[in-house]
Amino acid sequence: MEAFSFALSAQPYSPASPRHTFDNSSYDPWRDSYCSQRLMPPELVNTNLEAYLLFNGDDLVPQQYVGLMHYTQAFVSALAQLARLPGGFAPATILLVDFTVTVLREQIQNFFLRLLNSQRIQIYCILDEALLRICLDEWERDDDVSGPLQPWGEAICPLAHDISSAVDMIPKWAEAESAWLARLWDIKPETLAGDGSWIHQWYFARTRKFLEESMKVYSIRTRVNKCVDGRLPAELVDTIVGDVLRYYDVPTGGLRRKHLPAGKGKHS
Fold this sequence. Notes:
Layout: H1 2-8, H2 28-38, H3 42-56, H4 61-83, H5 89-107, H6 109-112, H7 117-139, H8 152-168, H9 170-182, H10 189-193, H11 197-202, H12 205-228, H13 234-247, H14 255-259
Helix pairs in contact: 1-4, 2-3, 4-5, 4-7, 5-7, 5-8, 7-12, 8-12, 12-13
């Protein structure tokens, strides 16, 4: 992760290397609340806020966020290539999930906590779409219901386990975010923490939905093929599978069309 550390490293302040100019307008709600609680004139709060951000290094967050975005995009691109190699699906998907735990929530947690929720959501969305595309590519390697079935349940078991373990950590992540915010106000962190529902709403949400539906489809296909045991024509097997999928209200069309927006190709 040396390259990542370098991407986020802060340059020392000097006239030749000016710090990022911070836009106070994005903090108007916080500033106004701060003024009303302490009866301080806005211009004094502006000065104090700029000094506070400077001394704590928070004025560097915008440019560090850009560095994180570039690194994340390069990271998921490399993992997409890894996933296309023989046997690359499992390590690529596991590394993607591990990035959200080991890197974002451990190695650079102090920086990640300083981001706005919208910025963290953007990072999560990049990772989610990358993982979804990798899973869809693997799913479509054997998408013919009348042919030999890939053991899909076994293929995604390590990934499903890692995502489930990470989801269990969401309350702890929410508490850490609240503890960082609580340093600005005289409020107990647990008062702000909640259950981390906003994180759960965005954390690999599309991939989790796809995995759930793909397992239903795979289970039905497997049972139908075991029942017919090769005694029926492939076209008739396809028809039976489609009827059973509709009966259980499971998607009958291609899962890619449902889970990826229109116009986005297989490897776009």
